[in-house]
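TA notes. Do not distribute before section.
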Amino acid sequence: MRTDTSPAILRSNYAPPNYLVDTVELGFDLDPALTRVAARLTMRRNPDGRSNEIVLYGDAVELVALRMNGKPLTRRAYRLNGGELHIPNAPDEVTLEIETALQPDANTSLMGLYVSNGNFFTQCEAEGFRKITWFPDRPDVMARYTVMLRADKRAYPVLLSNGNLVEEGDLGDGRHYALWEDPFMKPSYLFALVAGKLVCQEERITQPSGREALLQVWVEEGNLDKTQHAMDSLVNSIRWDEARFGLELDLDRFMIVAVGDFNMGAMENKGLNIFNTKYVLANPRIATDADYANIEAVVGHEYFHNWTGNRVTCRDWFQLSLKEGLTVFRDQEFSADMVGTDSGRAVKRIDDVRVLRQAQFPEDAGPMAHPVRPDSYVEISNFYTVTIYEKGSEVVRMYQTLLGRDGFRKGMDLYFERHDGQAVTCDDFRAAMADAGGRNLDQFERWYSQAGTPRVTVATRHDIEAGTYDITLAQSCPPTPGQKTKLPFHIPVKVGLLAATGADLPLVLEGEDAASAPTTRVLELTEASQTFRFTGIEGKPVPSLLRDFSAPVILEYDYSDDELAFLMANDSDPFNRWEAGQRLATRRLLTLTRMVQDQEPMRETTANLETYTAVLHKTLDDATLDPSFREMVLTLPSEGMLAEQMDVITPQEIHTARQFMRRLLARTLRNELVQLVDLNQTPGDYSPDALSAGKRGLKNVAMLYLSELDDTDTHAMAQAQYDQASNMTDRIAALSALQNSSAPGRQDALERFYTEFEDEPLVIDKWFALQATSPATDVAAVRALMRHPAFSMKNPNRARSLIFSFCNGNPSRFHAADGSGYRFWAEQVIALDAINPQVSARLARTLDRWRKYAPALQSQMQDALQRVAATPKLSKDLSEVINKSLATD
């Protein structure tokens, strides 16, 4: 097995930079084959530094010239050590001039400066700036930037960078220039430039202070008709941040640029946000309701970074969740507020929790487990994870739960008052929350330093004579790599109690005044076990536990089926109403899975669905609930969620059991499902508003259930919707229903779809993904699709749409008993690593929990992992994931 020798970087080894950078002047002569970069840095000795040695970082960049205070530095005056350049014995004040040469068109990593479809783009987070020039490339080195861009005017008529456009003009040789100044201090990871043939949509807004700002969304020609929703989302984000947190846009100009080749979703470069086209381009013809919602969320996320990430940034990359977890929380709250209704907000909360449970909980339970604030890493790109983002968001949400909405706002205000313009730590944020709220949050720090998902077990006791009800909460957290024992967390547990009538009971803790008692209480669990006693509880209530999913924990309580059905029908907390239904469905699905494992015949009577279907009837008929909420209730737990409930995962059996239950529900609820399809049509012009999107979602989930019946009526229903669809949401849902049936027109529909949309890359991504996740698609079919002329490994979106979708979204086929899926995975991981290590490392995560699968699958997964490990010249990104996956500890 290959062992990577790259040393781990430790949080405990943090030291302030020896030199600070006050100003950065950059000059770019842009050419795809050979771009020349000139940098002038004014630097000064940091009083907190340890020495007078300047340390610069570079990666795959040619050093052409180096001068200090006007004098060329010979090779003897500095030391190159891998990707580091050391200049010892530097004076206290330094002007450093650096010239480098780059080959952007050969840069397939999509980090640093690269070319996409003939245009120049940059991606500098986390360590991409060192691919442009030698620099103290770390987030706690903040400077003001002035950028001169020069390029051929015909090929690159648009020249953009951070901040304000100061000057532009012709150079007289067919080239032109643009000079940009950013008025704010920023770290190098927030630098950006864009050059090429682009067009933009513009809008001017006036802010509460009276300042005007120019908003621009830049895209390639031919895509201007797909920018309105992104612009609307940007305006809504700005207005929301003003209203919710009192934060104004601080720039005269704010730009979004869309690019088709991008490793991530988007990047918050100060004033010049660069986005994956997936999160900008939308119109009814090409984008689904989910696309519209994702664009709104991602535009909001990157805009909110303007304050939580840019104005206040992270001291080092171990503090990454300081900006990402906080900003995910902000974008989640923004999206929920855009919906407005209680059950609509609950749908957003459910979506967020499903991501956490399906992706982050498994990460916490696997070899890549790490705290929200990691202690070490080999390659920082591997730590842009669901733990940093989604669990980090839940940690921020717990502050709001503990302090209240107003208390959280006070904490945010104090945070900006103390740290605007600084690079700080997660502890600084926690201190602002504690001081503003007058709370001791020392124990809360464990959410940052301890990995793993806590388990909270609940026991209850009702004393009829005394009229008391005890809730005993106990917490534990399993070992994770490098952390065998865990101290108790500070866990806010929201609870309610329901009377037999379904009404919420007033909650009075023993010793409290009963006047104006709330019906939801936050119990703060800080010990290994605590008991909370409520008084005035006459009849035995049904507890509603962890309302609104108030902490990222696994809750264990032995509800009866009747209690779950009661909560599903009556709970005033919409999240727990949905949760009760998921628990009921999960019980049935796990029972069916065991029957498949034991080769017992599955029959309608053994499924025991009466209690579940009875409450489904009631929920689906409740017109007071948002259609989107009823869609959520009707959606069964995913195969991935079911796998997480099993000690040994058997993907084929899970798939068989879930499909059996889907068909059974389709037969049982056929009349209601047909009625849902009829009642939730959305005639007229398409609108992505929450109500219309909810109706389409409910209608389409009903249609997909009906497609399980695979008869002529359901074939005709799907075919009619496909033929008549006026928007992508309905068209792709109908196509999916056809592909998962034996309908005679399914192949024709697939071919027609491709022909109609072959010039729309984002739609063709959907076309690949739909086939990759079909239960009919095996490894041979995926290999055939990879030979399709529209497929390219070099485009991350296209690789994700086919390869990732198959490996991560089609478990029954990927985990084929013959191991063909694992051999395919190994080939693609190795091939991608030579092109784009970040994308390769993310695909490698598919097998990081191989030890949890059945022994026959385990051995084949291990063989595939070892094959990758034995490959020479793996990237640091991939090596770290593979080595941790195979590690015995």
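Switch to the second chain here.
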Amino acid sequence: MGVDVEAIFAAVPSPYVLLDRDLRIVWANAAYLEVTGRTGNPPIGKIITEEFPAPPDSLSEQMLQSSFQRVLESGRVDHLPLIPYPIDMPDGRREHRYWSATHSPIYDAEGRVEYILQNTNDITRLHQRGQTGSFETSEEGDLIRRAESVAQENLELGTATRFFQTVFDQAPSFIAILSEPDHVFRLVNDSYRQIVGPERDYIGLPVREALPEVEGQGFFEMLDQVYATGEPIALRGAQVFLNVERDAPPTELFIDFVYQPLRGPGGDVIGILVQGHDVTAQKQAERQLREAEERFRTMAQSMPSHVWTAGPDGLLDWVSDQVRAYAGTSDGDLLGEDWVRVLHPDDVARVAPIWTRAVATGETYETEFRLRRRDGTYRWHLTRAVPIHDEAGRVRRWIGSNTDIEDRKATEAALAELNATLEERVESRNRELEEVNATLRQSQKMEAIGNLAGGVAHDFNNLLQAITGSLQLAQRGLEADSPAAQRIDQAMQAVDRGATLAAQLLAFGRRQPLEPRATDLGRLLGEIDPILRSAVGEGIAIETRVASGLWNTLIDSANLENALLNLAVNARDAMEGRGRLCIEVENATLDAAYARAQSDVVPGEYVCLAVTDEGSGMTSEVIDKIFEPFFTTKPEGRGTGLGMAMVYGFVKQSGGHVAIDSRPGRGTTVRIYLPRSLRPEETAPPRVERPVAGGSETILLVEDDVAVRRTARDLLEDLGYGVIEAADADEGLAAIESGRDLDLLLTDVVMPGRLTSRQMAERAQALHPGLPVLFASGYSRDAIVHDGRLDEGIQLLRKPYRREVLAQRLRELLDAPGGAAPAPKAEAPKPAAPPRDPAAACAGLGIVVCEDDTFIRLDLVEMLEAAGAKVREAASGAQALDLLAAAPADLLLVDVGLPDLSGVEVARRAQGRQPGLPVIFATGRDRVDGAETVENAVTLTKPFGQDALLRAVAERCGALAEG
């Protein structure tokens, strides 16, 4: 037969209430509600001390809270024989009552206290009779007095216990109390919990069950021995492995501890006090010190110089093998003061006071003297010693070295002679610095002018485009030989000259979209040789020299041809149409010293194109201005002054360098350095000329310039196309998403609005797969050009364009099988594949850059931080390893040639600390010896631009994710 326990409790006349661990009332019987005056509004769900508050820190509050705490911590029943506790009645009155309460724990399935069942009885009347002495029986009086005494003792005991626990937990050493032969945990302080793991449960568990990982380490056996013999055991620096964190490998700790037996009243051992200190940090420091000393001795023995150490008193206590080999002595010799016997007798009186003074003051010791070699000859040495201090600042040891300077002494006479010309050399150095500063100022000036020129060219091209389209449309209705048609032809010729001028400005401003390919300059020079000879005329003899084994370079061939043609024409004019022009192509390497002197050059491997004439030459003042736009030395009407500016801008945009060597009357040599490419040569596909043809397809025209948009619309409609117009990318996207049929998107690159033209094009191709996209621009900025190069797959129509060019490009895209190649964008995500956008892939990456050249390092840091990477920089291998030891990184970018370690060695050590760390070797060579032994490593050949750098970082980190 089932028993309804809740019904029984509800019916009993004694008050019962059930509390959860937060002391929230979850159930109360009728008797409890009656005695507390809550029959009309049961306080279910309320905190009992909030429903029945007592003054804070009052005796009532302390007694009740202490009882609840004892039940929750011990899991045992707790009694309050007598507790004064007020009750706030529903009508607002506060009644001061006395109670007798019992708090019983209710356990969950895991044996943990889940609820507290309170049985409380109102004994107010009984207590009041005790106050007036009107007990019905003496037993009642004794009962009340005993209850009051027990309540007071419990309160005092609880207070004392909490005080003891507080002191126990705040003890600086770890403490645990074990009882019984199984060593059951009875008490542990906070320090003990921090050592063995704060998340563990210990109390009530035998030590073998609470700390199973300690089995086999000898500690359990020592506990058994102390319990059996009653003799304490103490150890210093004991090694122990503990699972301090869950699901983590054991942690190595070192502790000083004592197992102290605890005896009962009869003298028998009833438990063990465990007390001690964590000395892990000290032991690790000692271990590191030993390792450091061993590394020092290993390093000292491998150094070619003499190395020695001395105590605080200045007496030598160790010398390296190189010292003994030099002096021809054996172990034990030269220690103490014995080293003086290999010192030249004439140097003893001078050197001894210097060493004595250094030992007395603790200052660095440095001097020069002669030491006897094993063959009896003396050689000059520079000796230097530095003091090592302890924490108190006292000298603990001296570390010194002797460096052979015999050769230096032999050249002192020559140095003295050089010192006589010191003023001249200082002046020369000042001139060099001034040249560097002038180069830097010139570079900054050219950059500013370039930005201005690019911006002017952009607006100029838009104006030219509106003029070009309007003129061609106007010409369509005229007879070819009419006066109006001839005037329009003249206007179109002027527009073409303006377009050429704008193109030169863009080239100088480094804003033209290049289409670079790996090119053999020797082959290219052979192809354009007839054009060059035709340009300079018969009076100029052209001599070409192409070095064997010529490297490829990554360039835009058309722009290079224009640059070379400009240089040839300038040379012809400088030689007044008669003379010899030499064009040479060879491999070249620009070192770090040269790069530092130029301020805007990246050291590395280049292909050098040199053009030398026998003309009149130039002064330094002319050379300083030769690359400025509209500057020319030619008579008025003989040149625009943009040829050399275009050459400069193109070379800089290609990642190269231009140098001019010229003197009045000695001719001029212009050297163009273009970065080496390791790719095989690529040939540009020939463009097929087509007749002008229109079509009936529908074209979405997106252009923010009203005049250009109207002109483009008229040209398209004149060719027969249907046109949908939009003033910006936002309007264009609205037209795309409207569902109207589209056959091609023709859009300007640079427009205002929320979206960019690139984003609009990607959205269009997502909604209309295979939709051809043609970008039209006179200034592409970074929307479709990155690192000075037109993005792969982009179709670009350069402004200003003629009707014929527009018609041909449209038919090329519309007639292509399956439409034109889409504008590049990220494909559907694949597991762990690196993003197509290198800058996005680099955002948030932690990268350590190790490069000893300051200018190169600053450039690398700037390029990476611009992409959102978090960069830490180091000038040596040791600094890089220290940074990686302080915090891990996502990638290491390291130069190969460093002042202390090779880049390969730095990478190996870094991966020893952080296995699998991706590595990029930055070098001017095409390969790095030993790089194949480094995991997840790739070589990036200098010079390289931001796009190449970010792509390498993205691919390297993506490759790591795939692995």
